Amino acid sequence: MSYELTIWNETTAGKLDGGSVVEFLTECITVRELIRERVYHEVPDVHTVEKSVRSKYLIQPEHREAILNDLSTSRARKAIDWKKQFEQACEAFENKGFLILVDDRQLDSLDERIKIKPGVEVTFVKLVPLAGG
To answer: Domain range for residue 62?
Structure first.
């Protein structure tokens, strides 16, 4: 049996972007497990989408990875290291680079548990640093 979560991206202006469904084998997961699964499933997609659409993804390849994986070149692409991206995403979460809401309740810790039940929705809210701040 698998358990499904619907994941949304939201801007600080309240705009929802691209819902996706992620499956888990257990009914209860941690925030860390949620981030890991999201990153793991996004890495293959980043190779196939245009740059303008990549902002909806949690992972953002570093400058060198982005250049090596530029879709406009015909050279072979270097694989994005999903484990490194996962570590960076966890660090960004801990440093308030983005928020995670489960049914409008903000989660604060990577070890916080999420119970997956029908209708539960998860929202990732990317925070944009203020200019000059």
So the answer is: 3-126
